[in-house]
């Protein structure tokens, strides 16, 4: 069974940092691109950051460029999202999702291609 589990969310003050983890089980991430998405209350889900199966290609939403960094450790079957200088608008449930590509590919799929989803982790930025 393909499963993704997010962790690392929590409550943080504005300007603080968190690192989210996305751990895969039941499949190897070597063949999958990973995307981080978020959904704030009353808003549509949006793509935050993406990384190819090789780790060689990454994309970021304009709203998080320079603050968030996506990375992956295929040996640990885990993808990370380092979030720095968090602000109130970053408050949301964060989800990771996987899209099959090929082994060690630099291809980053479009937002609608991700079809294996985790359950989400809450990130709350508040003073």
What would you note in describing this structure?
It is a single chain. The protein is mainly β. It is 0% helix and 48% strand. The protein contains no helices and 11 strands. The protein has strands at residues 3-7, 10-12, 18-25, 32-39, 46-51, 58-60, 68-73, 78-83, 92-100, 116-117, 121-125. The strands form 2 sheets. Strands 2, 4, 5, 6, 9, 10 and 11 form a 7-stranded mixed β-sheet that branches. A 4-stranded antiparallel β-sheet has the order 1-3-8-7, with no helix packed on it. Strand 4 and strand 5 (46-51) form a beta hairpin. The chain is globular and about 45 Å long. The model has no long low-confidence stretch (mean pLDDT 96).
Brief summary of the model shown:
The chain has strands at 3-7, 10-12, 18-25, 32-39, 46-51, 58-60, 68-73, 78-83, 92-100, 116-117, 121-125. The protein is mainly beta and 127 residues long.
- Summarize the biggest pleated sheet: 7 strands, mixed
By secondary-structure content and strand pairing, the structural class works out as: mainly beta
Let me know the number of strands: 11
Which regions contain 5 or more consecutive residues with pLDDT less than 50?
none
Q: Averaged pLDDT, please? A: 96
Helix content: under 10%
Radius of gyration: 14 Å
Shape: globular
Proportion of β residues? Answer: over 45%
If helices are DSSP runs of H or I spanning 4 or more residues, what is the number of helices? 0
Give the distance, in angstroms, between the N- and C-terminal Cα atoms.
40 Å
Order of helices and strands: EEEEEEEEEEE
């Amino acid at each position: 069974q393909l499963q993704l589990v997010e962790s690392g969310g929590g409550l943080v003050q504005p300007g603080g940092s968190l690192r989210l983890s996305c751990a895969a089980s039941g499949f190897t991430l070597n063949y999958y691109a990973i995307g981080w998405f978020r959904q704030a209350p009353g808003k549509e889900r949006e793509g935050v950051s993406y990384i190819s199966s090789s780790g060689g290609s990454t994309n970021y939403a304009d709203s998080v460029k320079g603050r968030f960094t996506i990375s992956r450790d295929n040996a640990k079957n885990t993808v990370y999202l380092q979030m720095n200088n968090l602000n109130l608008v970053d408050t949301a449930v964060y989800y990771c999702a996987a899209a099959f590509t090929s082994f060690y590919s630099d291809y980053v799929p479009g937002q609608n291609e991700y079809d294996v989803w985790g359950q989400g982790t809450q990130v709350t930025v508040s003073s």
